[in-house]
Amino acid sequence: MSKFIHVAVLAGSSMFALSAAGAAQDRSKAPQMKRELPTRSMNLDALRRTEYDVLIIGGGAVGAGCALDAATRGLKTALVEADDFGSGTSSKSSKLLHGGLRDLDHAITHLDLSAFRRVHSSLQERRNITNLAPHLNQSVPIMLPVHNWWQLPVYWMKLRLYHLMAPGTSKGFTYINSRKALEMFPMMRRDMVGAFVFYEGQHDDARMCLAIILTASRYGADVCNHMKVVDLLRDKNKTVIGAKAIDQLTGRAYTIRAKMVINATGPMSDSIIRLEDASASQQCTPTWASHIVLPPFYCPEEVGLFDPYTDNGSTIFFLPWLGHTLMGTSDDTREATQGKQPTEMEVQYLLDSIRNYINPNFDVRRCDVLAAWGGYKPLPTQSTELAHSTLKNHVISIGPGNMVSIVGGTWTSFRLIAEKAIDAAIINGGLQPLRKHSITATSCKLDGAIGWSPNMFIRLVQDFGLERDVAKHLSDTYGSNAFKVAVGANASGSVWPIIGKRLHSEFPYIEAEVRQGVRDYACTLVDMVARRLRVAFLNVQAAEDILPRVASEMARELKWSRARRLREIKEAQEFLNTQMGNTTEFDPIHMNIPIKLSVDQVQKYAEHFRNLDEANTGFVSINKCCAAMKSFGVKEVPVDLMHDVLRDIDCHSQGKVNLYEFLMLMSAIVHGDTAYLRYAKMHLDQKISAISRRRRKQSECTVERSGGGL
């Protein structure tokens, strides 16, 4: 039977609390980063020959936090991750460091003291994490629309309390009338009284996770991605003393010995727990959360939006993120074996939420979805959490083999969870750290934070001749290390910019970042386009476009053969298709829309489509479609009619159509009959809405279990 450590996330509640004088002494001895970043091969050699104090399994937010906390205390630390660092849920979050506005609403409604404490702790941690990496975290204003006058005093009271609970000089909130709200967010429905604007923290989650890993490594931790644990090592007393891991890139086995092992594998935590105890009951209930990325015109660049009271009863948000609009989220209980990509129904559910929320004069089209992705939130099972923890969204336990297991947690709580887990490892393993107290909340900065300032990008523009948006991106991504990236950048060959060859015209990513990404432990093409460069999460078609170029750059750095380079491209394309929403096939539910063409006509137009698709991409531009219509005798295509048809067939990609959509377009335009498209589309929308409502009713996750949300 496992022993559970009760974790209460509130100031001063740690069962491991030590004297204030001792903590002050520890802070005065804050360590400095003591080594250059070792290579992956150097870390592999160390794993083979070193006996560690702590071995951490899992390289997500919590695992990375544990490595940083342990290394800064002076413990010999190792971390292994089966895939890439942050490749799971930690790179697929809402990108917010929130205090938990929905949690506060629950606390007030149910007079729940523990919920108040969670909100207070989350707000404190939001500040701590911002201090860790100021270059990776920024405040984002979020609009909270008020639909009824009686909500004004209620919202004001909640936001006032929320602001008062935040430590330090956090930004407050303001009320704006409906006219100013619509000026700020033009696509919003006009049936509102006004809106409040408050502030939350936002970050690039994958880069944040990587920065924590790199910092832990600089402090002495040996970290290795693509290293899968397949078994645990035990002594004669059946105490866990390490793990056996397989390098996924070479197939070589490694035996890693440690006095304490920490299981921080998120949704996969039960699989590691059962390596320790085959009869262990389920402790983790994965909940799937889907997100979609839309063009920037869906959300103003300077403000996001959160609405807990949409017409269909769902809670949605729009956030400006890296020049795009991030929209979510749908929560659904799903087995991990059901895949790592939102289904078409989940995408349509989110689009349906948008249609019920924004101005009805604005067309919400499936083709506007640039990327669709999601992740599993590792919630503790309800029986476990209620029986063993005062905090409802994570549990830390000690198993029969003395392994520390962490189930649950959010980006906002990762640092504090890591601190408690390392405290538990020190006590249960009898470890002797150089510092008894964690310094990650007070005396630690992540790699690139020291020397960074918000206007540092201006120096990059002036000193190196980088374009402004490229310089801003480098500054906000690498912090003070941006100068190292700039030094290694290639000349552009133009008068301006002087250096910095872009990988894609629509993104500020440059070739030099690929070389930096390799130094930052990117081992595969997927590692690069998904988590070193976030383009896969922003626009899957753009990501596919740059695969050959990025692969060639990585091949030079990593000495890949031609066969390896082609294999990497193929695997990256598979990743985009299966996890990022880059499917070229129209979903079967859309096949209900008929095509009014004879067999001969279908063959004729299909052949014409193939001729237009010279590059064999599976798509044809709208311009080419118009040219094709003229060749069929259509003298002039009315703009409004073309818009209506494109809306009704919901073309697969902005400005382009696939074969099925091309045939529908030909049918509608050539025969002048668009009514049947609208009729079929209406029934399809009704079907999607009904399924969406049923899904929501079946998969509701309580606020206190989900981590509080906005």
TrEMBL record:
Where does this protein reside within or beyond the cell?
A: Mitochondrion
Q: Which domain of life is it from?
A: Eukaryota
Write down the EC number.
1.1.5.3
| Cofactor(s) needed for function | FAD
Q: Where is the signal peptide?
A: 1-23
Do you know which Pfam families this protein is assigned to? Answer: DAO (PF01266), DAO_C (PF16901)
Q: Does the keyword Ion transport feature in the UniProt annotation?
A: no
Which terms in the Gene Ontology molecular function aspect does this entry carry?
calcium ion binding; glycerol-3-phosphate dehydrogenase (quinone) activity
Q: Which UniProt keywords apply?
A: Calcium, FAD, Flavoprotein, Metal-binding, Mitochondrion, Oxidoreductase, Repeat, Signal, Transit peptide
From the UniProt record, give the pathway where this protein acts. Answer: Polyol metabolism; glycerol degradation
Q: For this chain's UniProt record, which GO biological process terms are given?
A: glycerol-3-phosphate metabolic process
Q: Which InterPro entries match?
A: DAO_C (IPR031656), DAO_C_sf (IPR038299), EF-hand-dom_pair (IPR011992), EF_hand_dom (IPR002048), FAD-dep_OxRdtase (IPR006076), FAD/NAD-bd_sf (IPR036188), G3P_DH_FAD-dep (IPR000447)
PROSITE patterns, per the entry: EF_HAND_2 (PS50222), FAD_G3PDH_1 (PS00977)
EF-hand domain location: 600-635
Reaction(s) catalysed (UniProt annotation): a quinone + sn-glycerol 3-phosphate = dihydroxyacetone phosphate + a quinol
Question: Which PANTHER family does the UniProt entry name for this protein?
Answer: GLYCEROL-3-PHOSPHATE DEHYDROGENASE, GLYCEROL-3-PHOSPHATE DEHYDROGENASE, MITOCHONDRIAL
This protein's name: Glycerol-3-phosphate dehydrogenase
Gene of origin? Answer: Dmoj\GI18998
